[in-house]
Amino acid sequence: MVVALEDADEPALHRELRSRRAETVTRVPLAPGRTLVHLRLPDGQPVEAVVAGLRAAGWSATDRPEGGGHLAAWLANNAPTVVSDRLCVCFPWSEFDRAAVTGLVEIDPGRSFGTGAHPSTRLLLAELAGRIRGVERVLDVGCGSGVLAVSAARLGASVAATDIEPAARAATRDNARRNGLAARVVVDPRPVEAVTGSFGAVVANVGAAELISMAPAIGARLAPGGWLGLSGLSPAQVSVVVAAYPGLTVDAVPCAGDWAAVVLHRPAGAYARASTRRCGG
Questions:
Q1: Is residue 153 within 8 Å of 181, Cβ to Cβ?
Q2: Biggest alpha carbon distance in the chain?
Q3: pLDDT on residue 270
Q4: What is the DSSP track for 64-117?
Q5: What's the pLDDT at 271?
Q6: Which CATH number fits domain 119-265: 3.30.360.10, 3.40.50.150, 3.40.50.300, 3.40.1390.10?
Q7: In the chain, where does the domain assigned CATH 3.30.70 lie?
Q8: What span, in angstroms and rounded, lies between the C-alpha atoms of 42 and 22?
Q9: How many beta carbons lie within 10 A of that of residue 134, not counting itself?
C-alpha cells in the first residue's frame, strides 16, 4: 500500500496509520515537499478496507504490490502520461523522477472519470497542450476528475469547470488544490446552460449523446475566434456530432484507435486557417 502526501501532512498520516495498525516501510521523496510513504499491514488486515478508509478520510492512497511481476505491472499501469514537452499527467503515487518533467499535473480520480491515460482524454490533452498559449479563458464541461481543467490551468489558462455530479466537482477542486492551481480553476456548480460569459476554448469529453443534447448550451459559450474540443466519440459519430454545432468549422479530427475527437472553431476575421487534420491523416 502507498500514500502520496505533502511533507507537512506526514504527522497526521502517522496518527491515522496508528489507528489502523499500519506501519511505514519506506519513504520516497517525489519532489520538494512531496513524499510517497509505502506501508505494511499486519497479517490478516484487509488491504482494500484500509485503502478505502484512508481515501474516505481524504488521503491519496492505493494498493501497491510488494514485489515481483505484480509490482512491475503496477508500476507500468501507474506510469505518467507524457502528452507533450509542455504537459505530463500522472497519479499522485506514480513513481518517477518528477524533477525531469515539465508541466506536471497530478490527478487523483477519486470516484470520477479522467486520469489522462484514456484515449478520449489524451486527445483533448494534446489539443490543449498545442493550442493554449498564455492566459485565456477555458470552460471544461463535464469536468470529471478535473484532468482537463487542471491541465489547462497548468498551461496558463484561467478555467471554469462544471459537472452535474457533486463527486466530480469535489475531485476537480481537490486536484486543482493538489497542483497549486486552485486560484486558476473555478468549479461552477451550475449546469452548462446556466454558466455565464464566453470562453476562448471549450472542452467536453462526455460522449456523443451528451454532446448533441448540450450542443446549444456548449456552442453558446464559445467566443468568436474560439475553439471547441469534443471527445468521447467513435470515428463514425463525428459527423453526427458536428451537425449539432451549426456555424462552427471543423479544424481537426484526431483519432486514437477506436476513439475520436473533433476540434471546431467559430470563425472570426483574424482567425487562423483550419488545418483540417483528420483520422489517419
A1: yes
A2: 69
A3: 33
A4: ---SHHHHHHHHHHT--EEEETTEEEE-TT--S-GGG-SSEEE---TTSS--S-
A5: 37
A6: 3.40.50.150
A7: 2-76
A8: 7
A9: 7
Could you give the angle at the alpha carbon of 167 between the alpha carbons of 231 and 260, nearest 5°? 10
User: Range(s) for CATH 3.40.50.150 in the chain?
Assistant: 119-265
- DSSP readout, the chain? -EEEEEGGGHHHHHHHHHHTT-EEEEEEEEETTEEEEEEE--TT--HHHHHHHHHHTT-EEE----SHHHHHHHHHHT--EEEETTEEEE-TT--S-GGG-SSEEE---TTSS--S-SHHHHHHHHHHHHH--SS-EEEEES-TTSHHHHHHHHTT-EEEEE-S-HHHHHHHHHHHHHTT-TTTEEEE-S-GGG--S-EEEEEEES-HHHHHHTHHHHHHTEEEEEEEEEEEE-GGGHHHHHHTSTT-EEEE--EETTEEEEEEE---TTPPPP--B-TT-
Cell of 26: 519506506
Closest CA to 205 of 86, 104, 114: 114
CATH code given to domain 2-76: 3.30.70
> Which amino acid does the sequence have at 183?
A
Cell of 252: 481537426
Block means of pLDDT (10 residues each) for the chain, length 281 residues? 92 87 84 88 82 90 89 92 94 90 91 77 96 91 95 96 94 94 96 94 96 96 96 96 96 95 82 49 49
Cell of 235: 470515428
pLDDT at 177: 94
- Rounded Cα gap, residues 251 and 243, in angstroms: 14
pLDDT number for residue 30: 87
Q: Among all chains, which residue has been given the C-alpha cell 468521447?
A: 232
